Automatic annotation (TrEMBL):
EC number, UniProt record: 2.4.2.7
PANTHER family with a match to the protein in the record: ADENINE PHOSPHORIBOSYLTRANSFERASE, PHOSPHORIBOSYLTRANSFERASE DOMAIN-CONTAINING PROTEIN
Alphabetic keyword roster: Cytoplasm, Glycosyltransferase, Purine salvage, Transferase
Pfam families the record matches: Pribosyltran
Stretches that traverse the bilayer: none
Biological process per Gene Ontology, one example term: purine ribonucleoside salvage
Boundaries of every Phosphoribosyltransferase domain copy: 55-176
GO CC terms of this entry: cytoplasm
Cited SUPFAM superfamilies: PRTase-like
Substrates-to-products reaction catalysed: AMP + diphosphate = 5-phospho-alpha-D-ribose 1-diphosphate + adenine
Source organism per UniProt: Campylorhamphus procurvoides
Name of the protein in its database record: adenine phosphoribosyltransferase
GO molecular function per UniProt: adenine phosphoribosyltransferase activity
CDD domains in alphabetical order: PRTases_typeI (cd06223)
Length: 191
């Protein structure tokens, strides 16, 4: 799809066609949304769709998860006129942090960190990531926010797959994603 073309009928998720399949093997996600971010209207519509379920909700801050969640998270924070907090992989923050181990979508053991001075008791955080496949990364971010006394106001991602971890998140938190219900099975099975 042309990076300047905008379809006449812009149904929810039209921009998903901008994503490209993985050509680099199993250590990478099965689909790459980075081209979507290059398309001005695609990015705007994606962020609008992610934020729509939270209209009227009290959100104090948006947190994006390292690294691709920084793009959508910062864009969402700008639209909401809120601050942005980066939740990082271990070793990237040079301030006092709280750490949480997790297993990512590829089965690798990792550690997530957040600065300890950004979240206070009761602060309502919208967590944003590019994708929730197994839920391990998002669950680590949730645990960091809650351990610091924050409240998870919601979870937003381009796709929240119907995995065990994705269901755990959906059952406990208000969620938003961009995949229309008719396409969800294809995304769950990586087709």
């Amino acid at each position: 799809m042309d990076l300047c073309h905008v379809p006449a009928a812009r149904e929810k998720g039209w921009y998903l066609a901008l994503m490209a399949p993985n050509i680099k093997g199993p250590n990478y996600a099965w689909l790459d949304p980075s081209r979507l971010y290059c398309h001005p209207q695609g990015l705007q519509d994606c962020v609008a769709d992610l934020l729509q379920p939270f209209q009227g909700d009290h959100i104090d801050m948006v947190a994006g998860i390292d690294a691709m969640g920084f793009i959508l998270g910062a864009a969402a924070a700008a639209v909401l006129h809120k601050g942005f907090l980066a939740i990082r992989k271990a070793g990237h923050l040079c301030v006092q942090t709280l750490a949480q181990p997790y297993t990512d979508y590829s089965g690798r053991e990792k550690v997530m960190e957040v600065r300890t001075d950004a979240i206070s008791a009761g602060l309502r955080i919208l967590l944003v990531d590019q994708w929730v496949e197994t839920g391990g990364t998002m669950r680590a971010a949730i645990e960091l926010v809650e351990r610091l006394g924050g409240v998870v106001a919601g979870v937003a991602a381009i796709c929240i797959e119907d995995s065990e971890g994705g269901r755990w998140i959906r059952e406990r938190y208000k969620c938003s994603h961009c995949v229309p219900p008719r396409l969800q099975p294809r995304f769950d099975h990586h087709q």
